[in-house]
Amino acid sequence: MTRLWWVSLATEMRQTTGEVSRLAGWCSDNNLSLNVEKTKEIVVDFRRAHTQHVPLTINGATVESVSSTKFLGVHITEDLSWTDNTAALAKKSQQRLYFLRKLRRARAPPPIMYTFYRGTIESILTSCITVWYGACNASCRKTLQRIVRAAEKIIGVSLPSLQDIYGTRLTRKALCIAGDPTHPSHSFFSLLPSGRRLWSLQARTSRLKDSFIHQAVRKLNSLPNLPLPSLFCPR
């Protein structure tokens, strides 16, 4: 049995219906069965005039349409905000702080507590951080950073901020994509004729401006020197 998460753009509903039909046919031909009960659909529609969306069907069964769901540990909502995801990460991290305090009461040395923090708290706070952190509002960022500051007081050492971790991972991921010609997003990292900067991507909304690709291009352009310009896609 296979379960599926499906994110549909309202402007591409007809194409989505066709893709789902082809997917169901492929699964049937390859002796796979889609679990329709566990399959969820999220419709992303930012148009001012909302229309009634025709529900997806798989083998005659209607796919449940939801406003939010959890995929690979990340909470995704139909408005592409990250409030639910932030709340879930904060709740889980707060639970781990209890055990960090227990280590301090047991007089564990700071290196041990730091290792525990990196493995059980920071790993939660930074899970898929390149996907959502750039689009988080200030309130969500403060909520998560507050947990880092609490851990600093418990351990007694300075800890890297989430903003610094995000910047490091964003740069690393962007260079990884730019250096892989087979990656679907490789073409977005194109050099200007000067070879010193990347083409800036146009964005009409702050939602698109704060997405991963746009953030990554701006991050690489902010570096003093672009590393290995030969990695990038020629224009």
Q: Any key phrases for this structure?
A:
7 strands; mainly alpha; 46% helix; disordered N terminus; Alkylated DNA repair protein AlkB homologue 8 N-terminal domain-containing protein; 8 helices; AlkB_hom8_N; 3-stranded parallel β-sheet; 3 domains; methyltransferase activity; 2-oxoglutarate-dependent dioxygenase activity
How would you explain this protein's 3D organization?
This protein has 8 helices and 7 strands. The protein has helices at about 15-30, 85-105, 110-125, 130, 140-155, 160-180, 205-210, 210-220, and strands spanning about 5-10, 40-45, 55-60, 60, 65, 70, 75. It is globular. The protein starts with a strand and ends in a 14-residue tail after the last helix. It holds the Pfam family ALKBH8_N. This is Alkylated DNA repair protein AlkB homologue 8 N-terminal domain-containing protein. GO terms for molecular function: 2-oxoglutarate-dependent dioxygenase activity; methyltransferase activity.
- Give the strand order of the largest sheet, numbering strands 1, 2, ... along the chain: 1-2-5
What's the SSE pattern? Answer: EHEEEEEEHHHHHHH
How much of the sequence lies in strands comes to 5-15%
Note the quaternary state here: single chain
Provide the structure class: mainly alpha
Largest sheet: 3 strands, parallel
Give the CA-based shape.
globular
Number of extended strands: 7
Using the CA coordinates, give the radius of gyration: 22 Å
The poorly predicted ranges are 1-8
Please give the alpha-carbon distance between the first and last residues. Answer: 44 Å
Q: What is the total domain count?
A: 3
Fraction of residues in H or I helices: 40-55%
**Treating each run of at least 4 consecutive H or I residues as one helix, how many helices?**
8
* Arithmetic mean of pLDDT: 84
Pfam families: ALKBH8_N (PF09004)
Protein name: Alkylated DNA repair protein AlkB homologue 8 N-terminal domain-containing protein
GO molecular function: 2-oxoglutarate-dependent dioxygenase activity; methyltransferase activity
